[in-house]
Design brief:
The protein has about 230 residues and is mainly α. The protein is built from ten helices and no strands.
Length: about 230
């Protein structure tokens, strides 16, 4: 089975790390699909309901591509996702939106932060896996919808901006907490970041720069929404 894979993926340790990473992203996509489907019920208009439902459908499409890739790697997609269920479910449990606008912020800021983190890791993957990860995290074209709805709501009710800014900061803190927890519990992912003889890795300075970039991008997203980070 492994002989038909690219050279990098014939390394058992590296392949295990890739399976872990794809499993984490796949369960994140499944969770995003479920959450967005629930958020559609809160939509104030038919147009909003359709937009959120389309976002949910896109997440499910990404999930299918990841499942297929995991199968190609000789892994059980469901077994690969299972170790990340608790951490991701806990994140969503601790960040359940109170209303439609908090749900929009979470879809844009929370999912964007996770996507940024996985894109950073993708730089240390073999080309085929890197392309799959980037494609799975691609903006499906709905960002403009979220930005428009949030900015319009704040213009109509400026006091809403303060509450949503606090919510955005809370999402950032919870995401970092859960991300650190997953990395600490999964040796394969830690090894992936550390690199190998034929692959670059992240030293402490590089990890620090990575988190600085994540923080900066989060601030940019908040600014795009008309909120303070």
């Amino acid at each position: 089975m492994t002989e038909s894979l690219p050279v990098a993926l014939q390394d058992d340790d590296y392949r295990e790390a890739v399976v872990d990473l794809l499993g984490a992203i796949a369960y994140g996509e499944l969770s995003a699909f479920e959450r967005l489907a629930e958020d559609a019920k809160l939509a104030p208009s038919l147009e909003d309901k359709v937009e959120i439902s389309a976002m949910a459908a896109a997440e499910f499409g990404h999930l299918n591509a990841l499942r297929a890739r995991l199968t190609d790697l000789g892994a059980d997609p469901y077994a690969a996702m299972r170790p990340f269920r608790r951490a991701i479910d806990d994140f969503h449990k601790h960040t359940a939106p109170a209303d439609w606008y908090e749900g929009l912020i979470k879809a844009y800021v929370g999912d964007g932060l996770a996507a940024d983190f996985y894109r950073e890791i993708a730089a240390y993957l073999d080309p085929d896996t890197r392309d799959l990860v980037i494609d799975s995290l691609a903006d499906t074209g709905h960002s403009a919808f979220v930005v428009d709805r949030v900015r319009s709501a704040i213009a109509a009710n400026p006091r809403l901006g303060g509450r949503l800014a606090l919510w955005g900061r809370r999402l950032m803190g919870e995401a970092l907490t859960q991300g650190q927890r997953v990395a600490a519990e999964r040796d394969a992912l830690s090894a992936l970041l550390a690199g190998g003889v034929d692959r670059p890795g992240l030293d402490l300075a590089a990890i620090g720069r990575m988190f600085s970039r994540l923080t900066e991008r989060h601030a940019e997203r908040m600014a795009e929404l008309g909120l303070d980070s």
